[in-house]
Amino acid sequence: MIEPILETRGLDKNFGALNVARNINFALAPGARHAIIGPNGAGKTTLINLLTGVLKPSAGSVYLGTNDITKMAEHQRVKHGIARTFQINTLFMGLSVIDNLNLAISERMGNATGILRPAGNYSEVMEEAGRILSTLKLDNDALTEIHELPYGRQRLVEIAIALALDPKVLLLDEPAAGVPSAESHIILDAVDSLPKDIAVLIIEHDMDVVFRFAERITVLVRGAILAEGDPDEIAADKEVQAVYLGESAHV
Amino acid sequence: MTSSTGTPTGSLARSVQFLQRRHRFHWAEIIPWILAIAVFYLLPGYRLLATQILVMILFALSLDLIVGYAGIISLGHTAFFGTGAYITALMASNDIPDPILGLIAAAAGAAVLGLVSGWVLLRTTGLTLLVLTMAVTIMLQELANDFDEITGGFDGINFTNSEILGLIELDQLWYSSSYIYVLVVLFFGFLTIRTIVYAPFGRMLIGIRENTQRMSAIGTPVHQRQVSVYIISAAIAGIAGALWVQVQGNVTTEVYTFELSGEVLIMLILGGTGRLYGAFLGATVYKILESTTEQVLGTDEPYWQFAIGIVLILTVLFARRGLFGIFEDIVKKFKGASKGEVQ
Fold first, then answer.
1. Strand locations in chain B, DSSP E?
2. In this structure, are residues A176 and A190 in contact, taking their beta carbons and an 8 Å threshold?
3. Which of A73, A90, A130 faces B213 most closely, judged by CB atoms?
4. Which one, of B128, B145, B121, lies nearest residue B66 by Cα?
5. Inter-chain contact A119–B23, Cβ cutoff 8 Å?
């Protein structure tokens, strides 16, 4: 098997008596298109928080390639190539779209602490922002402040900021959550056209999205991995059907 | 430079062009300096008040860096103002009376205090942070009071400065050279702050203000950056404190009062936070209001505070972006809806 780019070994997380992650052994392959599904409260976002360093595990470890990053702070993990988006928009609401991107790009390029040259004179930052905006078709909104954008396009900025970090691993936490179905194709198209060399892990409730996008699926239930396999295996898995797919079929 | 634009748009190119020009000086930015010079020649009787205003502008500007840009709320900024003031006064009364050296030492001392206190305090947020900033300045005031052999306690220290660069004497009677001295220091302090806020560092501060959580998620070591801006802000506040006592030739524990911390925060909110010229407008209006109500209504303290209170309530209720925000709106109306706002 190919060496995973991101891996967890025996990952546990407790909040008091509540086990939100239980002995999770999870591996993400380079360039993967991997989905995590599971009912509400299964610990999907918790897993993302453990992978990105927002939460520290109670036991177990996280590896990026062969490096143990368990003790590494969130901001350092970003510099090592792990980027994420948020389930609920976590943007710089009062700033324009291009200013949102520039913050991420400046940080990545290492000039965010520059105090002498005006930000507008860093042409390499501007060019990179322009490139990403064009890719995601946000170029006409470059100067629009986030709070003036429709929700669907705000979700797109979530992805744009993560891409601006030039990640090796991209964790998408329900990228289409809250987007009206008429607009959701914008997000799905963006997800479909992500660069192939980025390993993408997506959390999603919408089964159409999951089965359209994922080459591999992990099912999480009550903090533990219930099943993992390619989409056909998961769709055929009796246990998964009982716990999860059966449930959503009612909706 | 903007070659990456796609076929359908000039829109992206125009956006980039806007960002490339955002930091440029607007012609109107010369107005406060012309006014300051005009006051010097036309209203010589008001030079004392005007000098105080200039110092308070610098103090409020330093506070704007952390409150308005980085979103760090503080009710204890006199900790740095007072430290700068005492360092300068103690140097002058101990045979190092050079004013410029005094400013440098004040900045350095306040910066060290900013580093130490910021490192600890900035791990907290919100009300906890507010109370802790207050506690630090109250503690320092107590210290200044108790160590009266060094600080002169309640009576303070009287001292004389030597000539600036060995040439110009600071006059404490007519405030002519003093006024120019303070104005020049303010000018350089302002240029420094203006440069910082338009540089990537300043944009990064705004990011922290807008969304701390996202800043961590894009790889920003938030605490470390907050401490760095706290140090810069402390140093400038220290310089303001040093100026304040240099032009008076006297320092008392008043420079450490929590009330003064509150006043400078009110000036900033009144003028408008996170917009540089808010500090100019706020400090000026506050000080003028203070002195006119004193003259008109008599020196009974409650009256002028009452007037300030009303203005503040009106500002907070109807002009959340402060007086400078109102000014921006008027300018926009006159120009018609065009360009984005100054930030």
1. 157-158, 250-251
2. no
3. A90
4. B121
5. yes
Among all residues of chain A, which has the CA nearest to that of B23? A118
Residue A128 placed within a domain = no
Put simply, the answer to whether B218 touches A165 (Cβ < 8 Å) is: yes
Assess if residue A141 is contained within a domain.
no
Structural domain harbouring A63: 6-90+166-249
What ipTM does the predicted assembly reach?
A: 0.91
Does A44 reside within a domain? yes
CB contact under 8 Å between A119 and B195, yes or no, is no
Domain-located, residue A119:
no
Whether B15 and B1 have beta carbons less than 8 Å apart is answered as: no
pLDDT digits (tens), chain A, 251 positions: 678 999 999 999 999 888 899 999 999 999 999 999 998 888 999 999 999 999 999 999 999 999 999 999 999 999 999 999 999 999 999 999 999 999 999 999 999 999 999 999 999 999 999 999 999 999 999 999 999 999 999 999 999 999 999 999 999 999 988 888 888 888 889 999 999 999 999 998 888 889 889 999 999 999 999 999 999 999 898 888 888 655 554 43
**Which amino acid, B304?**
W
Map out the domains of chain B with their CATH numbers: 27-335 (1.10.3470)
The whole-angstrom distance between residue B70's C-alpha and the CA centroid of its chain comes to 14
Q: What are the backbone dihedrals phi and psi of residue A110, each rounded to the nearest 5 degrees, phi first?
A: 80, 20
Cβ separation of A93 and B207 shorter than 8 Å?
Answer: no
> Which CATH number characterizes residue A26's domain?
3.40.50.300
